[in-house]
User: What shape does this take?
Amino acid sequence: MKTHPYWKLGFFALLVVLLAFLLLTNQEPTAVTATNEPAETTNLSNKLTEILDDPLLDGTTTGVSVRDADTGALLFSHAGDHRLHPASNMKLLTTVAALEKLGPDYQFTTEVLTDGKLKGNVLQGNLYLKGKGDPTLQKTDLDRLAADLNAAGIKTIKGDLIGDDSWYDDVRLSQDLNWSDESFYTGAQVSALSLSPNEDYDAGTVIVEVYPGEKPGEKPIVKLIPETDYVTIANNANTVNTNHSKTINIEREHGSNTIVIDGEIPLQGSRARTWIAVWEPTGYVLDVFQKSLAQHGMTFYGNSTTTIGKTPAKATVLTSRNSMPLSDLLIPFMKLSNNGHGELLTKEMGKVIYGEGSWDRGLQVIKDVVTKFGVNGESTLFRDGSGMSHKNLIPANNLSYLLYAVQEADWFPDFKQSLPVAGNAERMVGGTLRNRMTDGLAANNVLAKTGSLTGVSSLSGYVTTKDGKRLTFSILINNYLGNSSTITAIEDKIATVLANHEF
Assistant: This one.
């Protein structure tokens, strides 16, 4: 019997398939460590792999990358080249770009100008309040600007009060922000003219405080910081007996400045307090500034209006205010993970570098800078400067390398100081890590940026091992379900293992 001529071809094809299968199954191990690794590195790899075997991570995509901070050598990588959502670890990249392009001494400016002349004590012309992105502007600063005008002899303004926010474009929210977030400080609108209610510098927000009334059945007492008529309070809540629970909910109606308060607050109970993002922050600043002017004895004449417009090129600066330098602003930005600062810095970089205060231009600056520091631009996608977007993408290996590469920059001490410090109880030192890794070798040792979105948790930064070796690391956990505290506990285990390791 003759052998069929296609039999040999079929057998050869089967061999090719088997060889390809063997090559592919051995191509990418779960954990990658350095070639010809010493026993100490193997030991570290085993410890980290054991943590990553936690059933809580089943179904997630988890990237972990650890590098020698002195050489940049990759010591451990688990899915380190997978593109993952960084959440607020995106702020690491925004900060690097801002320090590189704006510089630690950079300040934002707010100006008061006029297109008229002062005759006697009457300013005959419009008064312009021009914002240039300052996220630290507060009511006290508006009071000082008003005091300066009063000291210059102005008592009456025969013109309009005009807010100028044209330093940036008029796009208020980043493209991927969920509409359900825009009522709260985490999703505040971005305007070049904005106001912060206190030293957390959540620009574009007003603090709403709810206190119990004097007796059950009365409406609770509502206070606003700062006081403003720009928002309307719909108080549907009630004061109840002391044996009731506090169920106060405070939320702004979508697309308006009506703040609705529902629920119950017990007699003699503690206050309820929330930062609410206003709709169109420019008008909010004008309302508060007008109050400052009145408090300093200035009035508007006749049919004056308050509106939004652009300052004429030949307008005269009457007074101005500079913000704190960027190096100081980075403390509340990074320690407290302030989303608004991330977006304002993004637009500011676009304005300074490209002459356009937009997300598109600002994100281009961020990408240009981090690429210069060795991040693979082909493996990243940037959609905002804060990390609120679920579409930002970067591999853990890129983040750990960026942390290594920036150490040679002259502004690195400011970058390092901005990172939350594990276990340090001081709010502006420990930041979002103040209640994590509070004892052992990780405490006051792990310097890292946290990140959190629905289904996303991250931690990236620096740690020194037990025997003094400095490491950079990045942990990106995506698509988890359940309690976020169980996931952050896994991140803390990894960081603690690094702190306790000996090479």
User: Anything to note?
Assistant: Residues 31-104+327-500 form a domain with the Beta-lactamase fold (CATH 3.40.710.10). The chain has three domains: 31-104+327-500, 109-172+281-323, 205-277. The longest strand covers residues 456-464. The radius of gyration is 28 Å.
